């Protein structure tokens, strides 16, 4: 048992039919999986089940078939990749999720240690409706339930929520690693904790900022969203991306931070360009003197030094969102330099670093340090909801 949720070692897997909620919602082009990261993360759990002569029966959503059987969203397409990565033959079991008797027979007929993939759970409307009848049908196909799909845990769907209450349930090894890392990031972190939040807009991250200021000791705000805060403080942001209508919200967040003892670290200088394109000519400005026709596309060197100072004092860093328009040179410089700095501090054993959500993984990969952080979550929406402090139904159900 880890914390309040059960893990794989709490379950008796021997000879059992193990329903494994996986995230097989991987990108596919021309009938081939183009990024198998999510499948790679499942391999240790599948191997553990097989090692105990259990049957690993994978169930997952795939795309948006809108509750209907739609062959273009069939999960059969991922079977060969799962087979390649696990080194096991993989059987695919078609079902419309209305009548599961044939699926049940196929599972019963499969020898111990089999790896099987069930058809897309979203072929039935009950999946997204968290329908108990559908969950009961799913439960009839297994003896125990293992959830290894953290990236789907923010959704209360039949295969992530209702089903977990119907069978002995536990987190798989990937889910366990993710929850342990997140616990070290914000749950019970080594203080001081600094959060770095960047990205385009405040509007998409209000809940996240509101939650973080009550939990962390320092909040670094960068990217386009910093402009809204600087505008709220009376600075002219020129033609920079800026949500002026959110000035009140920004002030409220800063006020809440002050009351909670959280230092807000905003940029003090910015790399300004006059065209939103790669290699556009740039000039450096202090945030109190931005050219009225220019736009800030990255944090400047003085800001970078300030951010490094904050990280230097921290024992834990939690990061979501790039500090500039990192897809375009030279506006990737701030994000890359800070990412490398966090990576080096982590490597030196001075820092626990947890990052994730949206463009963050791409930004860290671009900086060449994706594997140098303590943990990088590829979960997207679930990671953001965790940063927002919201309970994740798929995780909560494992605690019951
Ligand atoms: P998000 O999905 O909210 O994390 O936002 C990521 C996007 O924010 C990336 O595409 C960045 O290019 C963009 N971004 C970051 N900083 C800026 C900026 N200063 N101005 C415009 N876009 C930015």
How does this model look, in words?
- The protein is α/β, with parallel strands linked by helices and 400 residues long.
- 34% of the residues lie in helices and 17% in strands.
- The strands form 4 sheets. It has a 6-stranded parallel β-sheet with strand order 5-6-4-1-7-8, sandwiched between helices.
- Helix 7 links the parallel strand 9 and strand 10.
- The longest helix is centred in the middle third of the chain and has 15 residues, at 173-187.
- The two termini are 13 Å apart.
CATH superfamily descriptor of the largest domain: Phosphoglycerate kinase, N-terminal domain
Assigned CATH class of the largest domain: Alpha Beta
Number of helices: 14
- Which spans have pLDDT < 50 for at least 5 consecutive residues? none
DSSP helix fraction: 25-40%
Q: Structural class of the helix and strand makeup? A: alpha/beta
CATH fold field value of the largest domain: Rossmann fold
What is the domain tally?
2
Radius of gyration: 23 Å
Largest sheet entry: 6 strands, parallel
Q: Whole-Å distance between the termini?
A: 13 Å
Task: Record the SSE blueprint.
Elements: E1 17-21, E2 28-29, E3 32-33, H1 37-40, H2 43-51, E4 55-59, H3 79-86, E5 90-93, H4 101-109, E6 115-118, H5 132-139, E7 144-147, E8 169-171, H6 173-187, E9 193-197, H7 206-215, E10 218-221, H8 223-232, H9 247-260, E11 263-265, E12 269-273, E13 282-286, E14 295-299, H10 301-313, E15 316-320, H11 333-347, E16 352-356, H12 360-366, E17 375-377, H13 381-387, H14 393-399
Helix pairs in contact: 7-9, 8-9, 10-11
């Amino acid at each position: 048992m880890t914390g309040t949720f059960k893990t794989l070692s709490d379950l008796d897997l021997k000879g059992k039919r193990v329903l494994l909620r996986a995230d097989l919602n991987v990108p596919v082009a021309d009938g081939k999986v183009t990024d198998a990261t999510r499948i790679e993360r499942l391999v240790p759990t599948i191997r553990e089940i097989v090692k105990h002569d259990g049957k690993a029966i994978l169930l997952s959503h795939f795309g948006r078939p809108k509750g209907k059987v739609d062959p273009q969203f069939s999960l059969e397409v991922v079977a060969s990749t799962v087979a390649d990565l696990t080194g096991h033959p993989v059987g695919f079991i078609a079902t419309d999720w209305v009548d599961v008797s044939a699926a049940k027979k196929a599972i019963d007929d499969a020898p111990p240690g089999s790896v099987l993939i069930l058809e897309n759970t979203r072929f039935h409307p009950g999946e997204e409706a968290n329908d108990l009848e559908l969950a009961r049908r799913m439960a009839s196909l297994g003896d125990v339930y293992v959830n290894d799909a953290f990236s789907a845990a923010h959704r209360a769907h039949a295969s992530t929520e209702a089903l977990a209450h119907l069978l002995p349930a536990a987190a798989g090894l990937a889910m366990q690693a993710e929850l342990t890392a997140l616990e070290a990031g914000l749950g019970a972190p080594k203080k001081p904790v600094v959060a770095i939040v960047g990205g385009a807009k405040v509007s998409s991250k209000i809940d996240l900022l509101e939650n973080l200021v009550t939990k962390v000791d320092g909040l670094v705000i960068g990217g386009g969203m910093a402009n809204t805060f600087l505008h709220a403080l009376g600075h002219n942001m020129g033609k920079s991306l800026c949500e002026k209508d959110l000035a009140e919200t920004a002030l409220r967040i800063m006020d809440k931070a002050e009351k909670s003892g959280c230092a807000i670290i905003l940029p003090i200088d910015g790399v300004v360009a006059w065209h939103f394109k790669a290699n556009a000519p740039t000039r450096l400005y202090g945030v109190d003197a931005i050219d009225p026709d220019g736009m800030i596309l990255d944090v400047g060197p003085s800001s970078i030094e300030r951010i490094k100072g904050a990280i230097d004092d921290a024992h834990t860093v939690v990061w979501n969102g790039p500090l500039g328009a990192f897809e375009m040179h030279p506006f990737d410089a701030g994000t890359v330099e800070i990412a490398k700095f966090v990576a080096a501090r982590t490597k030196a054993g001075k820092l626990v670093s947890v990052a994730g959500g949206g463009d963050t993984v791409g930004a860290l990969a671009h900086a060449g340090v994706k594997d140098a952080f303590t943990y990088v979550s590829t979960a997207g929406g679930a990671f953001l909801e965790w940063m927002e402090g919201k309970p994740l139904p798929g995780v909560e159900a494992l605690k019951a």
